[in-house]
Amino acid sequence: MTPHPPAADPSAFGEALALAAGRRLALVVTGGVAAYKAADLARRLTRAGAQVRAVLTENAARFITPLTFESLTGQPAGLSQWDRPRYEIEHIALADWAEAVVVAPATANFLAKMAHGLADDLASTFLLAAASPILAAPAMNSRMLAAPATQANLELLARRGVEIIRPAEGLLACGETGPGRLPEPEIIALHAARALAPKDFTGRRLAVTAGSTWEKWDDLRFLANRSSGLMGRELALAAWLRGGRVTLIGGPSALRPPDLPGLAFQAAESTRDLLAALKALDYDTLIMAAAPADFRPAEPVTGKIKKERGLPQLPLAANPDILKSLPRRPGDMRIGFAAEDRDLVARAKKKMAAKDLDLVAANEASGSGSAFAAPESRLRLIFRDGRVLDLGRRPKFAAAWALLDAAALPPAPA
Description:
Elements (H helix, E strand, L loop, with lengths): L13 H4 L6 E6 L5 H13 L3 E6 L9 H8 L16 H8 L2 E7 L1 H9 L5 H8 L4 E5 L3 H5 L1 H12 L3 E2 L3 E4 L5 E5 L3 H12 L8 E6 L4 E2 L5 E2 L6 H12 L3 E6 L12 E5 L3 H9 L5 E4 L6 E3 L18 E3 L3 H4 L7 E8 L3 H12 L3 E6 L11 E8 L4 E8 H12 L7
Parallel strand pairs: 1-2, 1-3, 3-4, 4-5, 8-11, 8-13, 11-12, 13-16, 16-17
Antiparallel strand pairs: 6-7, 9-10, 14-15, 17-18, 18-19
């Protein structure tokens, strides 16, 4: 059996995009056919609660109008530095206003202007004055993207602190196929949300596990549980947003994270596969949000077990305890989950002591409050010093964010 985790659904990241609520974002739109995606980006950020002001180049206005962005955002959209609707120097005022700047699409021509400090229109003069984080999403033909001049400009901008959002691959407007597509709007929006998020996980390397494992019985059947991997995915995404480098190891049914640099995904089918993957990984923070199977068929069968042979027997063998099997690394942090059907806090405290954990997140494994395959969870955080923090029922991204608030602190002494 080969794991086939579901691909990430970009529309599922609304909770993460809410990080932009109340924040001020400038969107620079340059003259490429992908400019229509910038309108969707502006719409998504606005729906997330951000204030979005668009600035278009004259070439961008050949593809899409400022009125489109004004209609979608409810904010003024700029085009010419010679239009003076207000008594202010517009490019300076906008630079003072913006908390982050996104250039999408960023054409080869505009990237060259950014790299060499050219300032001959409203968009380029504004960028030269901006002191807030700048993100650029290149979009162009693959050969233009690979040209030495374009690559040199991208490298120069990256050295100066501009975040370059990796272009997507696929069918381009010219009919060719390759890298150069503008990423989907929600992927760019996640980068923008990251620019505005706290960076308390910068420099940390996190391993997060998610979902159930599959234990083979025959070539068609396996033992598993109902874990969807949603909590693990939300933890991985939240840690990435806060500056961490994250590897999410997911079981076969675990939801994939979005394709983002610094957020890797590894598939692991069985509990033993999950343990092997963790042993090979370099991390300083481990969050065990997966629900690995405690038992496996002792004698897996090749082929299909036929019912004509009568009622089959299923002898079981114990799987390794992952947390007990991993050597404790000096200075690392370990966070475990305890899914229990009763006595949550008491059992979570026993798990903390037995497995040498810094923090345990306890949740319900059965009944109407079960967190399995549910969009919400009620976590109780148990600390080494005996404190218990009940987070209440909340969406899993919000629960993951609150758990990371606790994990952002250094581990307490054992």
